[in-house]
Amino acid sequence: MRPAFVLLALAMALAGCSLLPRPDASLAPPPGAVHPAPRPGAVPAVPDGARTVDEFDTTSQSQRAEAEAEARAEEGRLIGRTVAALGNPADPGFWLETPLAEAPGKGRVVSAENGKAVALDLRPIDGPDTAGSRISLPALRLLGLPLGGLHLLDVYALGPAGALTPR
Fold first, then answer.
1. What's the confidence (pLDDT) of residue 118?
2. CA dist list (Å): 70 to 1, 12, 94, 129, 133
3. Secondary structure of the chain in HEC code, one letter for each residue
4. pLDDT tens across 53-93, in order?
5. For residues 55 and 98, what is the distance between their CA atoms, to the nearest angstrom?
6. CATH of 54-157, one of 3.40.50.140, 3.40.50.1980, 2.40.40.10, 2.30.22.10
7. Cα–Cα–Cα angle for 167, 153, 93, nearest 5°?
8. Which residues contact 44 (CB under 8 A, 6 or more apart)?
9. How far apart are CA 134 and CA 62, in angstroms?
């Protein structure tokens, strides 16, 4: 039994010494690579090493005020009600990924829990209308909702009449 154990341990140790090529460890862009410039008014990317909610929320006070002010206008067409959870916290800006949207566009959501509203970008995702949605960290904070859990939201489309249709 002991020789079998020694042979098995030796085989496992040798298996770790394979001659497979190592992936290129240098992730730096090649010299002369073009780096896109950020759009004016764009939300900055999440800083490396972000750990807290405040570090992940890179929106400015003026961007938050604008999102709230646009939502108070109470415009748009109701395209449906969805259950939303927190989306990728590293994805900046105000957005809702939802199967209710047929095309990207502007919209607003109103919390069924507290009546607060926020203007945001609607991003279509695949799935039935009854599938859940994902909402950005800054939008969820403006709605005054906890980051964990599922939240009932009324979704309104803004902009051209043909961009999004009620279902």
1. 94
2. 75, 62, 12, 25, 21
3. CHHHHHHHHHHHHHHCCCCCCCCCCCCCCCCCCCCCCCCCCCCCCCCCCCCCHHHHCCCCHHHHHHHHHHHHCCCCEEEEEEEEEECCCCCCCCEEEECCCCCCEEEEEEECCCCCEEEEEEEECCCCCCCCEEECHHHHHHCCCCCCCCEEEEEEECCCCCCCCCC
4. 666 666 777 777 777 777 777 788 999 999 999 998 888 88
5. 25
6. 2.40.40.10
7. 105
8. 38, 58, 92
9. 24
At which residue do the structure tokens 């003026």 appear? 62
Domain boundaries of the chain, sorted by first residue: 54-157
Contact 81, 131 (CB under 8 A): no
- Residue 92's pLDDT is 86
| Rounded CA separation 162/112 (Å) | 26
Neighbours of 96 (CB within 10 A): 26
Could you tell me the two tokens for 14? 């040798």
- What CA dihedral angle connects 7, 8, 14 and 20, to 10 degrees? 140
